[in-house]
């Protein structure tokens, strides 16, 4: 694989380091139907799935790192290894001087993990009681607890929700509470797996603002996975892209989008029904066509032209979204293999070596 050096970041004290990290799962496979069930009583068939494959990663203290990749890329598996939930199959892993899967208490007190799809709150308790419970679990002294609670509650503006039962919170409110609970003990590293999943634009924006502030003010190292390019663009100076468990890119987020994001998604709605508005170019494609709504995929440099055309139809609203992650990942993947074919020289050898050392760039 190929690599270009990324000079945009000076690595400070390293808090996460992996070398040749591999996780292979073994899962049971059963053929369909009763015959399959009976056959499996005698002979069980297993398949192996390498979810994370030879990943080298170094994360400096205070970094806000994005981790992106399509479904099944291995992001959650990587986070589970970094937080000690599962042990790696191979490779070296060091998080703040610990081997995470030893699950030492001192280690567990220094990080927090928030998974958008799983809650660690107690649904029957009120928010206040839930926070108190976590104070006890993490053995946080009273004054520190009050100071941290007031700071985070104030920052997210959720003072009015402290006495309500967790089960009555909306999705966005619940995610805010998950973040407060996770940060109460002032962890050095915060792992976030899809924290804005399912949230409306307003709640997602508030959470992004909050996370930026926590990273800047408290110096918390944050590792964020998200399917939303907006999250990554707004928050992470550096991004790692993985696909099929392999690290494809490790470097500047700006550079990633400049080089590999070619299109924008444009969604336009109308008061009155409108027929086809197709532009005669491959660079602006109509991908959704309903009487009151059209969806386009347009090359970034041609969006102006598209807007001009749409304005002629008196649109109610025009929304511009980032391109889907899958297309960007595919482009990175092909860029890597094309480059490898044409520039098989000393420079790329040297770069590949640097990449093995986990120092960043297209791998
Ligand atoms: N416990 C498990 N046993 C067997 N295979 C697993 C297990 N957990 C995950 N996998 C497989 O490993 C691969 C990586 O899964 P993982 O959940 O890490 O991906 P992901 O990048 O987080 O995906 P998503 O974005 O969909 O959450 C997938 O192919 C998945 O089916």
UniProtKB/TrEMBL annotation:
Protein name: Putative ABC transporter ATP-binding protein YbhF
Entry keyword Membrane: no
Keyword ATP-binding: yes
Originating species: Acetatifactor muris
GO molecular function: ATP binding; ATP hydrolysis activity
InterPro entries noted in UniProt: AAA+_ATPase, ABC_transporter-like_ATP-bd, ABC_transporter-like_CS, ABC_transporter_ATP-binding, P-loop_NTPase
Entry keywords, A to Z: ATP-binding, Nucleotide-binding, Transport
Gene3D superfamilies: P-loop containing nucleotide triphosphate hydrolases
Region (Disordered) residue spans: 340-363
Sequence ranges assigned to domain ABC transporter in this UniProt record: 36-269
């Amino acid at each position: 694989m190929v690599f270009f050096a990324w000079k945009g970041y000076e690595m400070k004290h390293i808090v996460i380091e992996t070398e040749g990290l591999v996780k292979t799962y073994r899962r049971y496979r059963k053929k369909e139907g009763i015959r399959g069930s009976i056959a499996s009583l005698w002979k069980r068939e297993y398949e192996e799935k390498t979810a994370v494959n030879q990943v080298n990663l170094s994360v400096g203290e205070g970094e806000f790192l994005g981790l992106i990749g399509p479904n099944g890329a291995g992001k959650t598996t990587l986070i589970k290894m970094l937080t000690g939930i599962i042990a790696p199959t191979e490779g070296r892993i060091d998080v703040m001087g610990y081997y995470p899967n030893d699950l030492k208490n001192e280690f567990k007190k220094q990080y927090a993990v928030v998974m958008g799809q799983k809650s660690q709150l107690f649904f029957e308790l009120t928010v206040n009681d839930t926070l108190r419970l976590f104070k006890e679990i993490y053995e946080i002294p009273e004054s520190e607890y009050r100071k941290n609670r007031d700071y985070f509650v104030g920052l997210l503006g959720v003072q009015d929700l402290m006495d309500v039962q967790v089960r009555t919170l909306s999705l966005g409110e619940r995610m805010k509470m998950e973040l407060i609970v996770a940060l109460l003990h002032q962890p050095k590293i915060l792992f976030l797996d899809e924290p804005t999943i399912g949230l409306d634009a307003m709640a997602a924006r508030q959470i992004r603002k909050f996370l930026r502030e926590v990273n800047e003010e408290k110096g918390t190292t944050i590792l964020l996975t998200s399917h939303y390019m907006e999250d990554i663009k707004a928050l992470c100076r550096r991004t790692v892209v993985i696909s099929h468990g392999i690290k494809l890119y490790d470097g500047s987020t700006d550079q990633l989008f400049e080089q590999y994001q070619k299109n924008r998604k444009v969604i336009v709605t109308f008061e009155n029904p409108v027929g086809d508005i197709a532009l005669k170019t491959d660079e602006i494609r109509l991908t959704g066509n309903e009487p009151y709504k059209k969806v386009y995929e347009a090359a970034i440099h041609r969006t102006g032209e598209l807007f001009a055309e749409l304005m002629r139809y008196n649109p109610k609203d025009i929304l511009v979204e980032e391109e889907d992650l899958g297309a960007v990942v595919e482009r990175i993947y092909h860029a890597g293999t094309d480059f490898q074919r044409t520039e098989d020289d000393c420079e790329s050898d040297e770069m590949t070596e640097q990449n093995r050392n986990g120092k960043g760039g297209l791998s």
